[in-house]
Amino acid sequence: MTNSNAYTPKVQSAHPELYAEHTFHMNKARKFTYNYVVIDEVLAECWNDMTIAEIAEGMNELPNRIIYRTQVLKKLGIIKSKHTGKTKLLQEQRKLRVQLRKVEKQLDAVNAA
After folding, report:
1. Whether 12 contacts 73, CB under 8 Å
2. 69 and 99 both lie in a single domain
3. 63 part of a folded domain
4. Which H or E run contains 14?
5. Nearest to residue 45, comparing CAs of 82, 78, 74, 1?
6. Residue 111 structural domain
7. Are 19 and 49 members of one domain?
8. Whole-model pTM?
9. Would residue 2 count as lying in a domain?
C-alpha cells in the first residue's frame, strides 16, 4: 500500500534544489534554520490576488521574509511582477510632468520679458 497525498507542493516539486539546504538567518542560532516551502506555495497560489502585506499578515510572517521569497520566485519565473506596464507608464508620466513644468516656467519668463 502506498501513501497518496492529494496535495503535492508545486514549487517544491518543480525546483527541489531550492530546498536542498535550509537558509541560515542568524550565526548564533545555526541549529535553528528556516524552510521556505510553505511561503513559496502560498505565494505561488495567492500572488495575483493578495498583496505582500496581506500574505505576511495571513501567514503571521515578517513582510521582509515574504519580500525576499518573492524576489527569489520572480528570478525563477514562478511568479511574475505585478503591474509592470502600469508602473513604467506612471514613472514616464511623472518625468514628462516635470519637463512640462520647466517648459512652462521658461515660457512665463519669456512672456514676462
Report:
1. no
2. no
3. yes
4. helix 10-14
5. 78
6. 83-113
7. yes
8. 0.57
9. no
